[in-house]
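Worked example 2:
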Amino acid sequence: MPILDPIAILYTEHDEGLAALQRMSDAAHKLKADGWSPEVVTELKESAAFINGEIRQHNEKEEVALFPQLRGAIPYGPVDVMLAEHRQLWTLEDHLEELLAGPQTDSSRRKLVSTALDIVDLLAEHISKENNILFPMARSVLSPTQMAVVAQKFEELAGAG
């Protein structure tokens, strides 16, 4: 079934991402307050896996399908900011994965809490910018033909993954 509204898909994926961020935030705060536990480590690992899987695929859709279409329609600034934030997210995510794989010390706990909450803050702000600025802008400046190209690229990425 063809994709009719690729932007709606991105909004839905953002909602799923926000739910994962809430779980990560809750787990980080629990780790900070109560210390290490198998449950909190599992929750952080599951949240990190969601970000590394679903969010990475979502970012790929934006970078491969949406952003190239926007580049010709709006100034580079907004797209460049989103790309820079994607890179920043992956740097933080890599650090989080390293901390989760390492020893469970007081020092690593503090770093893990800080990194997890940095991811939550960055990604929540990023999603807000896209939901409230970039996606409405895309809907107003992209032609139906350009939206069809975005939708086609989404389908190609889904088939490749």
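The chain has a mean pLDDT of 95. The chain has one domain: 6-160.
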